[in-house]
Structures are given as structure tokens and as C-alpha cells.
Design brief:
Layout: E1 7-12, H1 19-25, E2 27-30, E3 33-35, E4 40-42, H2 49-55, E5 62-64, H3 68-80, E6 85-90, H4 98-109, E7 113-118, H5 124-138, H6 143-153, E8 157-162, H7 167-171, H8 177-184, E9 188-194, E10 200-207, H9 209-224, E11 230-237, H10 240-253, E12 257-264, H11 267-273, E13 277-284
Parallel strand pairs: 1-2, 1-6, 6-7, 11-12
Antiparallel strand pairs: 3-4, 3-5, 8-9, 8-13, 9-10, 11-13
Helix pairs in contact: 2-11, 3-4, 5-6
Length: 285
Amino acid sequence: MLNQERIAILVDSGSDVPPELQERYHIFTVPLKIIFNEAEYLDGLTIDAEEVYRRLPEEIPKTSLPDGSLITSILDRIYDEGYRKLLVICISSGLSGTCNMLRLSCEEYGKLEYKVIDSKNISIGSGIIAIRCAQLLEEGMGFEELCRKAEELIPDSKVFFCLKTLEYLQKGGRIGKVAAFLGTAIALKPVISCNEEGCYYPIAKCIGRMPSIKKVLELAQRFASDCPKVMLAVMHGGAAEETQALIEEVKRKIPQGIIEVRGQISPALGVHTGPGLVGICVLRG
């Protein structure tokens, strides 16, 4: 019998593990909060990305950590379903306080042996590590080895994405004002990734939309080039048509890649990027 140690995997909604893979691999998810003036919403549960993008011109909402009571209820569900060990994989602590909050919640809960991993990454760059760990768990990997493997995968997971505007990252305090200004001046479009500290940085700069999307693919191809088999994700934020065309190019340019995830980023991340995000994630190993 596999998973004899009764191990569960938990992510936050910013990790962008799609619902079908959450169900397929029994991955539990803690939703972030999206706060408009009139109401609070649970990321991906009580509001979707399309609604967030529709409302952005009138109001840019705030995002917030999940309530402690909600986290406890999810930990209760994990325990009640018979799990006794928990691997938690979070988006970067350099971009969100979620990782620290989940660590504190697990410590306070006390019923589960746990390990919290700071992925130093954002969106599916974090989620793809959880998906890979879920696959390894299905293959019979034990808890200690699984925790080690999750940490080893951190430098092998890389996201590359471009935006139509840096306005929302600036307003959300995720990048400096100078970078935001450059993003609107002379159509300069940076390609963004996460550095070793798990913070955003411009990995390349392009003039115009199409060159920036091509650069995303070029950087992903380069990162994947020395690995005979890679896991891939192709994600967007309100840019489905451009992303569908990119998927065909990804298949051609990274033939050793298996596209595990394709689709839209979470509403909470969309708050900070605005519509027009196009990105690729590569997981080596």
C-alpha cells in the first residue's frame, strides 16, 4: 500500500494548482483573501479572475492572508481524513506572509507532523513543485525523503512572465516606482522572474508585446535545454488567445517538456499583475 505514512500535501491558492490536479493528487489548498470595499472573497472559491479583471478599472482590491480559523478548519479536515504527516509548499515568503502564517498555524495545531517549504517562487512555480511531490508520493516516497526532494526542486523551478503593464505590481508594492515607470515608457516590457531570495526581478527587457512573449519562450527553452525531461506550465492572466498560440510554440521549442498545467492564474495574483500576463514555468528533474 502506497502512502503508508499517511502524508498529505497542502498549498496556498497563490500556487495555482488547478482544481482538477488538486482532486487528482489529493492536494489540499488554503485560499488567500481578496478584499474589495464592499466585501471579502476567497481566492478562486467565491470570486474568479474574470470578475477581478472586470472590476480593476474601478477599484484595485487588497489581498490578504487567510484567516487562522480557516487554516485550522483545513488542518482538521486533513486530520479527520486520516493523514498524520503534512508537507506544506508555499509561494515565496519574499512576496507574501502566507508561508510564515501556515508555519505558525501548523505549529499551534500540534496534531500533525509537518514540514513547511518556502518555494522562493510565485504561482505555478510553487505549485509545480507540489504536483511533482504528489507524483513522488504516489510512487511510494516516504516523508523525510519527500521533504528533502521538495527543497532540492526549488532551484530547478523557474517562472518567466511578461505583463501588459507594470501598474498593478507597482500599486501593490511588489516592485519599485522606477521599474514601473520604465514599463510604461517607450513600450519597454520586462520579462520577470523570481531571484534566489524569492523576489521579483527583471531578467530581460524588450520593446513591445510580441518580443516580450518571444523572450519568455526563449528563456524557458534555455532553462530547459540541459535536461532530457522537464515539467512545464503555460499560464496567463486574461490573455487566453495569446497563451494558446504560445502553447503550440512551447511544444515545438521544448519537445522534451510535458505540459502539466495550462490555464489562468489565481484571482489574487491577478490583482497584482492586472490583465495581460503570459508566462511559462519550467521544472527540471
